[in-house]
User: What shape does this take?
Amino acid sequence: MRHLIAALCLFGASAAFAGAQKYEPLSASVQAALSKTVSDSRPTVSSFKSPMEAADWLGEMSRRLEKRIPNREYRIDLLRSVHYEATRAGLDPQLVLGLMQVESGFRKYAVSSAGARGYMQVMPFWIKIIGRPDNSLFDLRTNLRYGCTILRHYLDIEKGDLFRALGRYNGSLGKPEYPNMVRAAWQKQWGYTPSSLAQAGR
Assistant: This one.
């Protein structure tokens, strides 16, 4: 297992470890709250605290993602969207990048054997529960909005226990492989310390 984690994180392997969120009945209030979260329009404000912080984070993450997504314009758009949706959901953007690496290998049109779709491998049943029929899980922002909302939901259910929340997200609750892989990718591949200039610009 350690060798597999190392291969994914150090060498950027394209293999994915996609699972499947499992349907669990939601109370009417939770369903309504999640539905409102995924349907809110995207504000025009930036999720970064300053232009310097944005340039620093985007530059560093873009460099790391370049081999997987060569198109710079699309890569920056993806990273801006990840940062926005993760921040909006109260998640670490680097954690979300680690999850995307493990779930889909950053493949936009990835589909798991269970039918999970897109960058964050979201199960289609979520559209019926909290979304609209015209939502496409292959759309960049839709996929990230759903994925971050779902992970936040699982974190709330598990009272902040990331290990269990990740297990729920992958449909492998109680098994250590997936949470360990996401944590390893998060820390080794996407760990980030702002530059002194970015910190000064806050």
User: Anything to note?
Assistant: The CA atoms of residues 92 and 199 lie 17 Å apart.
